[in-house]
Amino acid sequence: MDNLKNKVAVITGGNSGIGYATAKQLKEQGATVIITGRRKEAIEKAAQDLGVTAIVADQSNITDIENLALKVKADFGQVDILFINAGITGATTIEQATETLFDSIMNINLKGAYFTLSKFIPILKDEASVVFLSSNTASMSYAGTSIYSSGKTALNAVMKIASLELAPRKIRVNSVSPGPTETEIMKKIGLDEAEVKTLMDTIVDKIPLKQMGTSEDVAKMVAYLSSDASKFITGADFIMDGGMVLA
Prior knowledge:
Layout: E1 8-12, H1 17-28, E2 32-37, H2 40-50, E3 53-56, H3 62-76, E4 79-84, H4 99-120, E5 124-133, H5 146-166, E6 172-178, E7 181-182, H6 193-204, E8 213-214, H7 215-226, E9 237-240
Parallel strand pairs: 1-2, 1-4, 2-3, 4-5, 5-6, 6-9, 7-8
């Protein structure tokens, strides 16, 4: 399948999870793919495994973002697809919140995402596609998620305004908002297999479709929004959570 043949795609946070799956999907559809990440060893290994290009860049660092845009322009010219995916999570009550946690989440998830779009606008082709990775938590309220959720809610507002500002160039801007998704993070939080299964069962019980999403599910949606099949879609947020937001 070569729906994206001759298109240049940039994916932030592409060394694992949804970013990695999307890089694989876009490459399979013919795109030239560049992935970024702040950990040199991880991003270069992922790029080697995928057969794509790696550029080390920290989305929370504006200078890194500026240098990334300059490097992409110098090496690849203009960009057809920009998937602003890099992000982190963290939970705390409002009472116990710290400035350090607030800044660490917002610097990547909101400020970094915002300025990634800002710095890439000059090198986006007319009719390009921009996709933000948001979250279904932007549409739901859970205790302990105030920082993360408010960042994603703000990101969706940026998406909608950007879709208006870039419409004269026929650049489309959308967001994808996954719910619970099976990624490597489950193996990184110190749980053994039995504990992971218990956690997964608890989460699945809250999802009407009674299943977790996968990184590949999200990757396919990003690929769709990056293709000409979605050329009349802009300013939209696609919630992918098995109906969880309805429950």
